[in-house]
Amino acid sequence: MNKMLLSIAVALIFxxxxxxxxxRQPGTSAPVQQSGPDTITYPSExxxxxxxxxxxxxxxxxxxxxxxxxxxxxxxxxxxxxMNPRFEKTLSSVQEVxxxxxEKIAALEPDLIIGMSTIKNADKLNLIAPxxxxxxxxxxxLTQQLExxxxxxxxKEAQAWIDDFKKRxxxxxxxxxxxxxxxxxxxxxxxxxKQIYVFGDNWGRGTEILYREMKLSMPDxxxxxxxxxxxxxxxxxxxxxxAGDYVIFSKNKDADNAFQQTELYKGIPAVKNNRVFEVNxxxxxxxxxxxxxxxxxxxxxxxxxx
Length: 306
Prior knowledge:
Blueprint lengths: L2 H6 L24 E2 L4 E6 L2 E6 L5 E3 L3 H5 L5 E4 L1 H4 L12 E2 L5 H6 L4 E5 L5 H7 L2 E4 L6 H11 L3 H26 L5 E7 L2 E5 L7 H7 L6 H6 L5 E4 L4 H4 L3 E6 L11 H4 L2 H4 L3 E5 H4 L4 H16 L2
Parallel strand pairs: 4-5, 4-7, 5-6, 7-8, 9-12, 12-13
Antiparallel strand pairs: 1-2, 2-3, 9-10, 10-11
């Protein structure tokens, strides 16, 4: 699996518990039940699972930013979260782990493990601590935060952030449209190895904000190719057809970005008009609250100059 596919795996939702209770359907929501003074029953996709009411030592095989935004103490995180420059200070003393480092995770003595449904060794991890996993795209990016809030018994805090974020993002969208025009289009590109990608509206990189909350338009070619799968691989030759009036370039500095020196790239109207806004890809991958707030601030500054 190449770096792009690994980074694209930054996402969402639940894993089988030891309980044989009926599973709930993905995309639906169910209330959390108090099981006792120290535990709650969380309604995962595959059935109820007992988790700590107030988890104190959490291993996040993904969703580190979602948990950090809720003030949850992390003792282990995935590689992609660990390499995020914006998380570096907070995670400096947190161990880097993977779904295969079982002994290392066990030594951390977690009381809860969270990951994606694609993780390996879920059954073994569940023997170390209650393990809840999430399937990407099962719910939208804000509902994902609400679900994680429920899991760690901080649903009210999660909902409060969601309400405030939507209000700020939607107002910024109105302000941006007033400046660039109702019909102006925006593309989100990313470089990885020797490949260029364009994104739809649900794959991080600020796409959820631009297209879902701000209601900005994407070029027709992006809509045709990237909207449903989430992303689409491009060759340099067709790049101009996918470029909007404005371009967000999520740039991997260690990737091959030589295409930016070509006449074809320089001839794209957004490039010629200084309407390409570059950002460090490693800071822009995710769609957790910490990253979303950063992305929103970046868009306000880039489009509105404030």
